[in-house]
Each structure stands twice: as C-alpha cells, then as structure tokens.
Amino acid sequence: MPPRRTPSGQGPARRSGRTGRGAGRTVPRQAGPVQRSRRPASGGGAQRTRAPRPRRFTGRAAVLALVLAALALAYAYPIRVYLEQRADIARLAAAQDQQQKRINALAEERKKWDDPEYVKTQARKRLLWVLPDETAYLVVDPGVPPDRGGTQKPATKPDSSWYGKLDASIRSANRK
Asked: What is the DSSP string of the chain?
C-alpha cells in the first residue's frame, strides 16, 4: 500500500500514536519557525574543535607511487636500448643508401669505360697522349714566371702552418 499524503499533498501523512477510532487520521503540520533546544553550557566557555584534515598521502597512494616508480625504473633501460637500436638502424639504412648511390655512380662510370671513344678522350686528357698523325700542344700557365734556366717551376701553394712558414723563412734566408 502506498504511503498516505497530507491534505496539502506534500509528503506522507503522520500517524498519531493513538489506536482506535482516530488512528487513521492525519495530523496537520504546524506552521511557523522551528525551535531548537539549546544545550546547556558546560562550565565555562565553549571549546572549538577543528574538523580532522584529510591526510595528503594515504597508504594506498604511497604504495601506488612506489609501484609506479619501480615500473618506470624497470622500463627505463629497455626503452633506452630500444631507442638506441632504432637510431642505429636508421643510421645504417642511411649509410646503405649512400653506398648504393656510390655503387650506381661507379657502375655508370664503368659503362663509360666500355666505349672506345671515351678511353681515347681520357688518354688525351690525363696522359697527354696523341695519335701518331697528330701534333701535341701544351699550354703553359702564363701566371708562373719563367726560371732563369728556361724551365718553369710548378706552382706550389704556400703552406699556412707554423712549420711551413718556418721552412719558407729558412729557405728565403739561405737564398740571400
């Protein structure tokens, strides 16, 4: 059976403690402010107590932090090794690509050497060879002054190191 409602329709009806004829009637609520009873003061002033503060770290939180720290330490080394291996693999793949490009360039040059005209051109250029019915001309660098004996010295790059400068200084002093 559902609870009975008050005549105003708010909430269940209160039953009086009586039994018998008026037991089923509802008691009307009294309107007005609710009065509370005061506690008697216990000898002197009232003493304030503070509500207990919740602890910042409970035992469970400390155990959880400890487990997480242990897991982080346990996985740190394998992850570092994994990342180093990935870097090595990437470095080796780049070196392999570079070697493959070098192999392809050498294969192209090897194909050039199969052509007889290329071989003749390289012999003329590198070895200064000429065919029997041709005349060879050698162009001399005009920037190099001729020597007294009529021969030219090859152009040398001055040494910029300290011992090269010392050697040049001693040679120039010996010429005078």
From this structure: -PPPB-TTS-SBPPBPS--STTTTPBPPPPPSPPP-PPPPP-SSS----PPPPPPSS-HHHHHHHHHHHHHHHHHHHHHHHHHHHHHHHHHHHHHHHHHHHHHHHHHHHHHHHTSHHHHHHHHHHHH----TTS----PPPTTSPPPTTSPPPPP-PPP-SHHHHHHHHHHHHHH-
